[in-house]
Amino acid sequence: MRTFSGIVAALAIMGWTVGAATAEPAGSTPLDSLAACPANARADSPVLLIHGTHADVEKSLGPVRQALLDDGRCVYGLDYDSDEPLSTSVDYFTAAVGRIRAVNQVDSLDLVGKSQGALIARAVSLQFAARAVNPIRTVVAVSGPQHGTSPAGLHLTLPTGSAVPQGLPFLSPAMADMIAGSSYLTRLNSGPMVAPGVRYVMTATAYDQIVTPYTTAFIDAPGVTNILVQDGCPEDHTGHLAGSTDPRTVDLVLHALDPVRHPGVRCTANDNGK
């Protein structure tokens, strides 16, 4: 086991510092609690899972996490306050990437995000875009509002043609940030949507009633593979929430991370449209 001083030194070399705990959002997993991968973990990039709004890793990506653990992968799942502004969560997970790399002395990580977590995962990859080598190897985004969800997805009604109101008292900062046209998404998407050298796999379901339209989960850019769950499996009617346990969605994530070990993707009828 590496000493704390050794971890601090490694972080400093990578350009990261172990800052004061007060810099971490309240309720989030303390980064200094993250230990190295188990000694018996498969020699591959660690996987960092990022859950969705008002959920946790088990609710958002539980079957994915279990399948990766069964596969011998090293998996991290961190708690965070999904009501915080997206910029706060992105900074937190960017720091988490640095911590995980340092304690494991690895060069790269894979990110898997569901819903809000999928948007955060892409934003984290962009934080490293200026580097000669991006430490993010693969981003797998499940039903992420990459272009923002329509107000209908959050059950809001806005006047036609009106701008997105900021600071709505009944919306958390994160939810306001995820509405199409928000100031956060306008800034995030004002440049390249993806980072060079990173592989992106974006999945969506046509029956999504939260991230709407479902095509907002897709990005048209080099290095991006967009996958609709129903392509090749029209009987899978999984909705946004049900996608967390939908067998085909789980298999698509595993296939995206390691197509050699997971070449097959199930097609299972699913009428859970929630």
Automatic annotation (TrEMBL):
Database matches in Pfam families: Palm_thioest (PF02089)
Keywords attached to this entry: Signal
Residues spanning the signal sequence: 1-20
InterPro entries: AB_hydrolase_fold
Residue stretches spanning the membrane: none
Protein name in the entry: Lipase
Organism for this UniProt entry: Nocardia tengchongensis
